[in-house]
Fold:
Amino acid sequence: MTANDPIRLAAALLVAALASLPARSQETETDIWHKVREAQFAGRSFEPVADQVITIEAPNRAEDAAVVPILIHAVQPQQPQRWIRKIYLVIDKNPSPLGAVFTLTPDSGRADIETRIRIEDYSWVRAIAETQDGKLYMAMKFVKASGGCSAAAGKDMEAAMARLGRMKFRTDGGVQLDQPNLAELMISHPNVSGLAMDQVTRLYAPPRFVRTVQVSYAGKPVMNADVDFTISENPNFRFYFLPHADGDLKVEVVDSNNATFETSVAIRRGLAAGS
Amino acid sequence: MRFGHGLTAPLIAPLLAAGCAAGGPAIPLPVTPLGEGAYVFYGAQQETSAANQGAIANVGFVIGDRCVAVIDTGGSPLEGARLRAAVRAVTERPVCAVINTHMHPDHVYGNSAFAADEPQFIGHEHLAAALAARRLSYARALQRELGEAGRDAQLLMPTRAVATGRPFALDLGGRTLILRAWRTAHTDNDLTVYDGRTGTLWAGDLLFAGRIPALDGSVTGWLAVMDDIDAINPRQIIPGHGPSNDWRGAMDAQRRYLRALADGTRAAIRAHHPIGQAMQEVAGSEQGRWLLFDGYHRRNIAAAYAELEWEE
Structure:
């Protein structure tokens, strides 16, 4: 999708940048950011004040660089006349700096996204919201973390492969019609980067990771995610949907081997739903 | 702590011996005799730093009639060289086996100091893949922590694998060590060494004493393996970190911690608390009971959460 080529370009640029010693500076205008910006947002300007549109929460220092919880928070609800249509997630120091592009709609209700990511080195983590009128707003957070991508092998690889493709999908409590409801999607998938190849032994796990997540409610798109191995093993997404009547909340997941996984839950007013 | 004698000498000695890891006169690690030709060096209860040269884990060796088995080699080539010097200070017999109890850098980065002895390097059947996957990040971390001394450190790979559930008898001449590879517990490549002559089990990081256990495998698996270790009924356990004098108390404390971690994390998952929230609230009662708690507790919760959210 739209994310692929910029990801590859930016990845190549960053691998080159990593070859030199990683800078520890908290300078926000990093070289890699300029390159990502040029590749993805050429000629476009960013609104000077973003905190009434989007914020990002992440730990100052990540205990486990392979599982860094982040919350991208949309300050306003999604409304027909004003809504966030895309959120770009950029981690400057990662091998693939543009790690996720989320596409949202008024039917999302809220454009909040909570997930867990890998971070390779001390880095700015940026969430860029694009509103329906094409304006860009950026929130960012500096996170101290190291080695989250290159040590991407799971803690228990056999268990991970045996469970690959299983999903759990549920709402957070009873569903209320005509207002945003929180849903959690868990995908059992090792999300292996393939970056951990060993030069001496040639032992490594080949890349295999979730590429797209498409969620719809009653046939209308709610949240699409174009992602890569930036997302932690067993990808987990919390997001909102806005039901106006009973219906089915569906998800289709495709990974880098083109394996497709689907599940759905029936949404009934007042009831909690889960698979 | 009681075993702090391991610390004072290494503070200065590494600098003196810095260029000598390839075979120069490294200063022997101050090892403690366990009796019957077995020796242990108790590492400092610290994070790896330039000051301690990675000498933070317990390492040691066991002497047979024919040859010597080294059990873990320390966190830097320099510590490995100093362990080798400690072997040489008490026996002329060759080192025929270097055993790694698991993949973590503080246990394996001294392997290269023994290359000239041409021993078997023995580890869990998952050790090679685990090291291969982490080689780059381990190398970067070592350089960050040790500076120049960490720059050219080599990570030697195992030459012999022990299969899970199939104990391997290592004959040192008149003395046999039983090597067991375990299911995923502290890591997915934990291996223990049982010395029948003294009834001593070298547990590697399946047992932490004093220092907070670090979960890099499976919390449920670890609790189960602790039960299996009880069933071996050893006379003594050498932990991977911390003193061995109260190893039964250490087993109890570790069980308490891992259970609190598992139970608290399950409760957070059932309450639909996201992982970031769980990391702030689980098993807070353990604070103050462990060394280096702040460095590991929250990441233990993250690891337990990622494991247990898929539990049936």
Observations:
- Helices of chain A lie at 4-19, 31-41, 157-162.
- Residues 4-267 of chain A form a domain with the Immunoglobulin-like fold (CATH 2.60.40.2470).
- The first strand of chain A starts at residue 54 and ends at 57.
- Residues 208 and 257 of chain A are 7 Å apart (CA to CA).
